[in-house]
Request: fold
Amino acid sequence: MEFIKVTKAYDKYIALIELNRPKELNALNLQLMGEVRDALKELDQDDEVRVIIITGNERAFAAGADIKQMAGKTTVDMWKTDQFSTWDQINKTRKPIIAAVSGFALGGGCELAMTCDMIVASETAQFGQPEIKIGVMPGAGGTQRLTKALGKAKAMEMVLTGKFISAEEAEKLGLVNRVVPVELYMTEALKLAKEIASMSPLAVQMAKESVKRSFEVPLEEGLHFERKNFYMLFSSEDQKEGMNAFVEKRKADFKGK
Reply:
């Protein structure tokens, strides 16, 4: 891995993917996103890992796509490259992903953060889709996920003007889970990850799947999908352990089985 770092240094159940192009403010080139895709695919198959955190550094989560890599491309070039196909693995990842964001999360950086399941932001975080300023528009989900998170009017303003919003405003609008001082944003992301990692991995993954489904289908179909996943969990050892622990007034020891 040249442009990311993958570690399990903080907790055996938590994997950290750190974007690592600091001089370019973690601009998302094809190679970096390919490495993120491959790391997520591997971590999703790692039985020990229960939660994944994606982060950058204090100055920038990711300041956008690598414009130099795209500036001279034609429509045919972009079609053949199919650069957004690498993003599909993020959406396919079963395990919960937390974005720990500080500094710039712009363009592709904002889209990457929104593709994650939760966002913990530092007070310095700024979110935006400024693609309109260089003659294009969001292409990795910005017009879709931003609208679902903020509503039409606010998303339209951000996409059509390229305006940034602060971490505080992003929290008020429901884009991020919480905002903390810059020196605590990784600590807070790890705290959230550890809390989730203490739950049944099977239940967590099925619950994540059900929440995501709610954005894609009508209510009745979503309720049917939720019910199916609920019933399926009664075939797991974790369900027996969780309910027995509750009855016995002790802490459950989930194994992911």
